[in-house]
Amino acid sequence: MKKLITFRVNDREYEIAVAPNRTLTQVLREDLNLLGTKEGCGVGDCGACTVIVDGKPVNSCLVLAVQADGSDITTIEGVARGDSLHTVQQTFVEMGAIQCGFCTPGMVLSATSLLDKNPRPTEREVREAISGNLCRCTGYQKIVEAVQEASRRMKK
Amino acid sequence: MKAYNVINTRLPRVDAKAKATGDARYAADLAMPNMLYGAFLQSPFAHAKILNIDTTAAKKLPGVRDVVTAKEAGLVKYGVSPARYDEQVFCPDKVRYVGDEVAAVAADDLETAMEAVSLIKVDYEELPVLLDIESAMKEGAIAIHDDFPGNIGAEVHQEFGNFEEALKECDIVRTDRFVNKRQDGGFLEPQACLAHYDLNGNLTLWTSTQSVHYVQRSVSMVLGIPIGKVRVIKPYVGGGFGPKAAVNAMEIAACLMSRRTGRPVKMVFSREQVFLHSRARHQFFHELTTGVKKDGTIVALKNTCYLDGGAYSSFGIATIYYAGSLLGAPYKLPNMKYDGYRVYTNKPTCGAQRGHGGVAARAAWEQQLDSIAAELNMDPVEFRLKNIMKTGDVTCNDFNMSSLGMKECLEAVRDGSGWSTKKGKLPAGKGIGVACGFFVSGAGYPIYRSETFHSTATIRLSEDGGAVNLYTAAAEIGQGSDTILGQIAAEALGVSLDDVKVHSGDTDFGVDLGAYSSRQTLMSGHAVKAAAEDTKRQVLEALSEKLNISIADMDIAKGVVVFKNGNPDFSQLRTAYIKEHRGWEDLPSGGELTFREAARIAFLTRGVIIGNGAYKPGELGGKYKGAAVGTSPAYGCSAQVVEVTVDMETGKVTVDDMTDAHDCGFAINRTNVEGQMQGSLSMGLGEALFEEVRFDEKGRVANPSLGEYRIPTALDMPNVRTIIVESDEPNGPFGAKEVGEGAIMPTIPAILNAIHDAVGVRIDELPITSERLYALMKGKRRK
Amino acid sequence: MLLLPKFDYEEPKSLPEALAMLSELRGKGRVIAGGTDLIVNMKKGTVKPACLVSLKKVDGLREIVGENGALAIGSHVTVSQIAESDQVASAFPVLARSASGLGSPLIRNRATIGGNIVTARPAADLPPALIALGAQVELRGNGKDRKVPLDGFFTGPGSSVIEPGEVLTEIIVPAAPPFTGGDYIKLGHRAALEIAIVAVASRLTLDKPDGVIVDARIVLSSVAPTAVHAVSAEKALMGQRPSEELFAGAASLAVADCSPITDIRGGAEYRRDMVNTLVKRTLLKAYHDAAGVKGGGA
Predict the structure, then answer these.
(1) What does each C-alpha distance from B536 to B427, B473, B482, B611 come to in angstroms?
(2) Would you call A102 and B28 a contact, using CB atoms and an 8 Å cutoff?
(3) B267, B253 contact by CB (below 8 A)
(4) How far apart are the first and last CA of chain B?
(5) Which positions ≥6 away from B598 have C-beta within 8 Å?
(6) 3-state secondary structure (DSSP) of residue C37
C-alpha cells in the first residue's frame, strides 16, 4: 500500500504517495524528475546515486523513499544557486575533474558535504570522503585537486 | 612553434557545466510520452538447446504490449566484422552463454515487463559446457558454432623477417608465459536506450554507444529498415572504454518492439547485465620468446597467443591481430613471428577494451625485457633506450612511425621520477619499475571493407554570424571529443571556443566511425579542421568581393578579420550591419572588423554558409594478410615509472608514485590530455592489482557487481606526475595524435617490474592480488 | 535496473508497539534500520520479508551514552557516528577503527551498529572489535527482555540467538581495565568499499605497564562461520611477559583456531597465513598501547 510522505528536496516541500518498495533514487528521478541523480549499480557499490539526506551524503539506491519521510534532501540540482555554480562545481569545471560525468553529481555532493564539515581537508581526507564514489575516467587526481582548490577559494 | 589562441590551452570542457549541475542527460534519463519499458529474458544456462518457448502467460499479463523471440525478430546475423557475423538478436535454436538473449517483453512499466519475463517458459536441453580454451579445443569437443568445429573462431599466422634464423645470432634467448584475466569495462553508466519508430516509418534510437554509425548500420541490416530511415543519436555517455563500440541486442530489440507496438520503448541494463553482456577485455595466454645480442640489441620475438573469446566474435578478430601486431615497436625489432588463436567458449563475449588487444602482450613483454636487462646487467632504462625507435622508423610489420617521441618520454620519466637515485637502491619491500608502450591513433581501415570517409564534419554559420554550429557524428563518451573538436573548429576558423556550438553523436550529422581505436582527435579532428577552413574560405571570399582585397591578404583570428596590409575602410559594412540590428545592444564597435560582421556579409551575399570537411587516411603501408589491423596514420607512445611498496607479510601492493610521459603529438587541450593519461593509469592499476571477472562451474559470472569486481577507489590511486611530450605528428590535425588508449600500455608492466624490484619475484598471472603475490613470495622463500 | 519486490512498511511510534507488530507478523516482518544490507539482499531476492518495520520513530535508539568508562550505544547509532565519536575514540579506539573501515562514507552514514550485528555476516566489521571489548547486547521482545554477551551471540552465517519478535536495542561496552590496549586490522583488496578477506581484533590487559598479561582476547573474522576467539593463542598469552617472540608464537597457534574456507575473496591457505600476520600485528600494537597508556586504551 502506498504511503503518504513529505520531505524537502532542494528547499522545496513535497507531499507524495509512494509504494514502500520504491527507492529514493527512483522517486527523485521518476516522480520529481530530478535526473541528475544517477544509478550505476543499485546496491551501494558505486556512489553515482549519492544525495545528501539530513546533512549526510548517502547512497539513495539503498534508501527507501518511505524512510526519507520528514527528511531534508539535497540533490545535485540543489547545489548551484540559479546560474551561479557552487565553488566545488566551478573548480570541477575549471580543473578537468569531469570526464564522462556520470559520477560527477555524486562526487560533487560528497565533496560539498566534506567541505561543510571540514573546510580545510588534507588530500587524504578528500580521498577518504570520495572513497564511496567510483570514477573510472579520471584516476581521481583532478577531482581531488578540484576539491582542494575549492577549499582554498571558500576559505577566502 | 606556432602561436595558437584556442588549442594547446587548458580551456574547460564544453560539457562540464551541464555535467557538474546534473543537467546532462544520459540514455537512461530519457523518456517520451506513451513510452513502454522493455526487459530481456536471458539464458540461465551456458550451453543448451532451446526446445520450446512458451510466451502465452507473458502475453496475457495485463500491461504487456509485446513479447518477442527469434520468431518475431528474424534470423539475420550480425556482429562486428562481416567475416564473423555470428550473433542474432534472440537465440533461435540454442544459447551459448549465461545471459544469451532468448526473448524480450515491452510493457507499460518495468515491473510488469520483468514479471512477464518470469512467465515465459523455455524448455532447454543442456549441452556440455566449455568454460576454458583447453576444453573448447579438446579433440571431440562439442562445437559452440557449427561453422567452427574445433571452436577456433579465428587464427593468425604472421612472420616478419626470419625468427628461427635470427635466433641463431642471439646470445640470450628467453621464453616466458603470461596470462591476464577477463576484465570488465567498469564504466559507471550501464547501457541504456530508447527507440522510437514513428508513423512515417522513421526510426530514432537514442543509445549509450561509442559509435552511432555502426549501430545505425546494424539496426538497419538486422531489422530491414532502409538506412536513411534509421537515425541513431548518442546522448551523453557515461564511459565506454571499448565495450560500447559495437551494437548490442538491447538496441535492436528496443527498435523491434517499438516498430511492432508503434510506441517508444526504453531499455536499461542492470549492472549484472553489463557484466553478462561484457564485450570487454579478453583473457590472453601469451608465450613469448625473445632473442637478444649481448650488447643489448633486441633481434627476434616469437609470440604465441590464445584468446578466450567467449560465445561470439564481436571485435575478436581485430583483438587477435592486435595481440600480435602491437609488439615490436617502440623497439627496433627486425624479426617477429606471431601465431594467435581465438577460441569460442561458453562465456559472455569478449571484445575491445582500452589498449585493445595489446595490454596483456605489452605486460608480458615489458616484464620479459626487464628480465633480459637483468641478465645483460644493463639498467632497464638504458636497455630500452638502446633499442628505441625514432621518428621516421618503420616496423618490420610496416607501421610507419611518422612521429615518435619515445626517447623523450623515456628520458622524461627517468629524470622526472629520480630513477637513477632509486633503481636498485630502495629498501626491501620497496621497488621501482619502468615500461614503455605505443598505440594506434585510429584504425587505418573501417570495420567493414569500404572506401568510406572515416569522419565528416559540417559547419553552418548562423545567419548573423554569432554562432558557429559544428555538426559531427563523433562520439563524446567522456574522453572530451566535443571539446577537442570544438577547439579545433574555433582555432581553424579564428573564433573563440565560446562561439562554437558542438552538435555531435548523431547519424543525421554525418558519418563518423566513432570513439574507438583512439581515433576521434586525429580523424574527426581532420574533418573538423577541413570544415572550418572551408567555412573560413567562404567568409573571406565574400569579404574579398566586398572590400576588393585578395583573400591571401586576409585572415580571421580571435574573432576579428586580420588584414595583413593594414585595416581598410569598412565603415560602410559596419553601418549596414548596425542598421540591420537596430535596438540591439551588442553591436560591433572598435577598430576591427568582427567575424560576426564578416559572416553576416557572407550570408547576405551567398546564403547560408556551410563548410564541409571529410577525412580518410591516405595510402598506408602493409600489404600482408591482416595488415589492416594495427596500421594507422600515426602512433602515440608513452613511458611510465612506478614505485610500489609491498607488505612482505600480506602481499599487499601499494602503488606510491607514478610518473607518466605521453607523446600525443600536440596537445589540443592540455588538461584533457592529462585526464586521459591519469584515467588510463588508474584503469591499468586496477587491472594489475584487482580486476578479474570470475565464473562458477556452470559458467555464471561469480562477481557481477562493482563490489566484487573491483575498480580502484580514490584511496587506491596515487597522484601521477604527468608529462606531456609533443612530437608534432605530420598526419594529425595541428600535429595531434592519440592519448586515450596508448597511455594504459606501460602501466601494468611498470607495476610488475616495480614489484620485482621490491621483492624479487616475477609475476606471470594477473591480477597480482595480495594472495597471489604472497604465494609467490612464500614459494620463493621455500626454494 | 534492480527492482524491489512488494512489501509493507510500518513506522511504529514506540518500542512496545513495534514489538507487538513484529510478534503479529510471526517472522514475516523484519526490522529495517540503515537498510544497507537488507535492501541489497531484498533486491537480490535472497530475503523476502512481507513487512518492514522501521524504528525511526522510536526514541532512545540513537544515542551513545558514557558512564564510568563504559558505553551504551543505541542499536540505531550509525557507523559514521561511531567512527567520528570522540567518546568512542578515546574509550575504545579499536571500535572506532573497525567502524571507520566499514564500506564507504556513504554506507557508514546509513549503516547502523545494530544492523551490522543482527545480519550476522561472517565478515562483518564491528562484531570482532565488540567481542574483543566484551560487549553485551540488549534484546527486547517476546515478553522477556534480556542481555546477552556478543560472544556467543552468533550461531552461523546469517544466524544468531536473536529470536523472531526480538529487537536489538542497545550495545553495552564495559569499561576496560587499566593497562589495556587493542587493535583491529582488516585486510581487504582495495582501500575502501571492501569486505574483509581476514580481520583480527585483539585486546591485551597487563597487570602493570611492564608487567605480565592478565587478559588476552583475540577475535578472528572471515575465517569461520562466525567471528571466533583464537582460544589457544589467548591461552598461551595469559600470565606471560609480552615479547615479539611470545606474540609470534601465539599468532601461529591462532592459525589452528580458525577454519577458513576458500571463497571469492580469498583462499583458505592465504587466510590462515594472514591470521598469523594480523594476530602478530594486532598484539604488538595492543601491547604498545597497554604499556604506554594509563587506563583503558582499547
Answers:
(1) 61, 21, 20, 8
(2) no
(3) yes
(4) 58
(5) B465, B539, B540, B542, B543, B556, B561
(6) coil
Contact C277 B650 (CB under 8 A): yes
Answer whether the bond into residue B746 is a cis peptide, omega within 30°.
no
Q: Which residue of C has its CA nearest to B648?
A: C277
CB contact under 8 Å between C104 and A20, yes or no, is no
Task: Check if B169 contacts C (Cβ < 8 Å).
Answer: no
Chain A interface disruption, residue of B19, B274, B353, B659, most A CBs within 10 A: B19
Residue pLDDT, tens place only, B635-666: 999 999 999 999 999 999 999 999 999 999 99
Closest CA to A74 of A8, A121, A24: A8
Written as nine digits, the cell of B736 is 595531434
- Residue pLDDT tens, chain A, 156 long: 899 999 999 999 999 999 999 999 999 999 999 999 999 999 999 999 999 999 999 999 999 999 999 999 999 999 999 889 999 999 999 999 999 999 999 999 999 999 999 999 999 999 999 999 999 999 999 999 999 999 999 986
Buried b (16+ CB within 10 A) or exposed e, B178-214: bbbbbbbbbbbbbbbbbbbbeeeeebbbbbbbbbbbb
How are the residues of chain A apportioned to helix, strand and coil, as percentages rounded to the nearest 5? 40, 20, 40
The cell numbers describing B659, all together, are 610518473
Pairwise CA distance, residues B69 & B470, whole Å: 41
Of B19, B682, B712, the CB nearest to A98: B19
- Give the best residue of B29, B114, B650 to mutate against chain C (max C CB count within 10 A): B650
DSSP per position, B120-177? -EEEEEE-----SHHHHHSTTPPPSSTT-TTSEEEEEEEEES-HHHHHTT-SEEEEEE
Q: Given CA atoms B563, B568, B572, B574 in this order, what sign does their dihedral have?
A: positive
**AA letter at A115:** L
Q: If DSSP codes are grouped into helix, strand and coil, which group holds residue B719?
A: coil
Q: CA of B177: how far to CAs of B285, B288, B397, B772, in Å?
A: 7, 6, 23, 16
Could you give the maximum distance between any two Cα atoms of chain B, in Å? 91
What is the distance of C-alpha C111 from the center of its chain? 13
**Helix or strand (DSSP H, E) at C70:** strand C70-74
The residues pairing with C65 across neighbouring beta strands, listed in sequence order, are: C72
pLDDT in tens, B154-168: 999 999 999 999 999
* CB spacing of A47 vs C104 below 8 angstroms: yes
DSSP annotation of B651 = -
Asked whether the beta carbons of residue C191 and residue B694 sit closer than 8 angstroms, the reply is: no
Is residue B135 packed enough to be buried (19+ CB in 10 Å), middle (13-18) or exposed (0-12)? middle
Whether B188 and A103 have beta carbons less than 8 Å apart is answered as: yes
| C197/B770 touch (CB, cutoff 8 Å), yes or no | yes
B696 touching C, CB under 8 A? no
**d(C-alpha B246, C-alpha B232), whole Å:** 13
Which residue from C9, C56, C193 is facing A3, i.e. has the nearest CB? C9
Question: Taking the CB of residue B224, how many other CB atoms lie within 10 A of it?
Answer: 9
Cell digits for B561? 578579420
Which residues are within 8 A (CB) of B531 and not within 5 positions of it... i.e. 6 or more apart?
B457, B458, B459, B470, B489, B611, B612, B613
Chain A residues lying within 8 Å of B22, measured CB to CB: 34-37, 75-77, 105
Question: In this complex, is the C-beta atom of B580 within 8 Å of any C-beta atom belonging to chain C?
Answer: no
Residues 6+ apart with CB under 8 A from C40: A43, A44, A62
Task: Show Cβ contacts of residue B3 under 8 Å, excluding neighbours closer than 6 positions.
Answer: none
| HSE (side-chain half, CA atoms, 13 Å) at A93 | 17
Single pTM value for the model: 0.98
Q: Which of C2, C266, C277 sits opposite B649 (nearest CB)?
A: C277
